[in-house]
Amino acid sequence: MLAALLINILFIHSVHNAKILLASMPQGRSHTGSFMPLINKMKEQGHEISLYMEAYPDETNFGLKDRMLKIVNHTNPFATEEFESFQWKHDFVVTSQMFPFFYGSTSCDIVLREHRNFFNQMVNEHFDLILTDTLFAVCAYGFTALNKARANHVLMSSTHVESATGAMRAHGINFVLRPRQFMPVQDVEFKPELFHYRVTGTFEWIANFIISGFIVNERMKYSLAPVVPSFSFFEYQRTASSTFTDMPSDLIGPFPRTNDLFEYGAYCPTPKPLTGELLDFVSDPQSKGTILVAFGTVINWGRVPRKKFDAILDTLNSLTDYRIVWAYNGHPLNTKPHIFASSWIPQVDVLFDNRTVLFFSHGGLKSVKEATCSSTPAVFMPMFAEQVRNGWMAKDKGYAEVFSKHILTAENLRKTMKLVLENKSFSKNAARIANLFNDKVVHPLVQGAHYMNRLLRYGGRMPEYF
C-alpha cells in the first residue's frame, strides 16, 4: 500500500515538473508567438520549458529557458532581399512552400558545419517531450530524431494543419472540402458545391504532399545526412504522438479529425489600457476613430517597392478625419499630424481600445484572431503563406475585406478602407463574431494544457485503448 502511494506521488510529481523543449523555425518569432499562450499555461502548471531557435544573431527567448543558438557572420536565410521582393510582386502558391523549407535547410547546413557541438548537446539533453514546429525547423527535426532520451515529439502548427501534414499523420481531414491553404487573392471564395473548387483543392492537396514528401524531404535529407543517415519527413510526422494547432475551428469551420489532433487557438489576449503619448494621440475629440496599421514581423517597410509604399502613404495621409497608428520600421517619414508612426506599437491594446474603428494588416492568423477578439473591422492585404485564406475567414463572416497587393493604388486602397469604415454592417458582424468566439464551456488554453498533460502522463504518447 505504501509502495503504491509513493509511486503515485512520484508519478504526479513527474507530470507536473516535466522538462519540455519547444523547437521553432529559424528566427521564428511569429510562430513562437503563436505557441506561447499554450506554453505559458504549461509553465503556470510547473513545467520547465526551454526554447530552441536558430537566431541571426538575436531573438527574444519569450521568458523560457534559453536553448537559443545565436549565429553570427551569417544573414538570416529568411530575410533576403529576394524573398522580400517576392512578397510584394508574386502570389504565394503551393509550389512556393518549398522555398522556406530550403531556407530552413540552409540554416541547418550552417548549424551542422559550424555549431555541431551545440547540435550534439541538444541530442544528448534529456527532455520528457519535444514540441517541434511543423514548418522549416530542419535541425530540430534532426536532433529530435536522434534524442538519446527517446523523447516523444509533438507537432505544433501555427496555423491550420497543412494538407501534407494532415495526410502524413492520417488525421482524417478531407482537404478537398476545406478552404485551400494557398487561396488565390483574385478569388477569395470557397464554394465546395462547385466542381472548380473541388478540383483546385484536389490539385493543391496532391501537390503539397509531393512537395513536402519528396522534394522538400530530399533537401532536408541532404542537410541532415552528416548526422541522420536517411532522414524521412514522412516518418518524422507519422511517428509524432499528436498534433496541436493554433487555428480555431470557430473561424475556419468544423471538420472531422482523429483524436490525436488538438486545437487550442480560440483564446483572446488580455489588453491593457493605453497610456502616455499614445493615449493622448488617439484621444483627439475631432477624430472619427483610430485606424491601426500593422504588418507583422516579416515586412520591412524600408524595402517596400517605392510605388506601393507611396500608395499606402498617400492613402493614410488622406484619411485626416481619423487618427492613424502605424507600426513602422522603415526610413524617416514625412507624414501629416494625424499619423503616429513607431517601430513598436502595443497592437493588442490599440485594437481593444474603444476608439479603434479599423485594422489594416497582412492577415497573419494572430492578427485575424486579435481583430476577431476586439470586434475590430479589418482590411487585410495578404503578403505570403496562407494569409489570403486567413483574410477569407474574416471576410466570409462579414467583418473584413481582402485587398489585393496587385491592385495597390491610393485610390483603390482608400476606396476599400472607406467601404469598411462607413458600412456599419462590418462593425455589427465583428461584435457578433466576438461574442460567439468567447462563448466556450472550457477555456481553450486550459483544454490544450489538459491534453498536453495527458500526453505526459502516458510517457509522451496518446493512451492506448486497445
UniProtKB/TrEMBL annotation:
Protein location? Membrane
According to its UniProt record, the EC number is: 2.4.1.17
- Report whether ATP-binding shows up as a keyword of the record: no
How does the protein's chain sit in the membrane according to the entry?
A: Single-pass membrane protein
Write down the superkingdom of origin: Eukaryota
Task: Provide the GO MF annotations for this entry.
Answer: glucuronosyltransferase activity
Name a GO CC annotation attached to this entry.
membrane
Catalytic activity reads:
glucuronate acceptor + UDP-alpha-D-glucuronate = acceptor beta-D-glucuronoside + UDP + H(+)
What keyword terms does UniProt attach to this protein? Glycoprotein, Glycosyltransferase, Membrane, Signal, Transferase, Transmembrane, Transmembrane helix
Q: Which segment of the chain is annotated as a signal peptide?
A: 1-17
Primary location group: membrane
Q: Cross-referenced Pfam families, in alphabetical order?
A: UDPGT
Record-stated family = Belongs to the UDP-glycosyltransferase family.
PANTHER family, per this entry? EG:EG0003.4 PROTEIN-RELATED, GLUCURONOSYLTRANSFERASE
- Stated name of the protein: glucuronosyltransferase
Q: Which organism is it from?
A: Ancylostoma caninum (Dog hookworm)
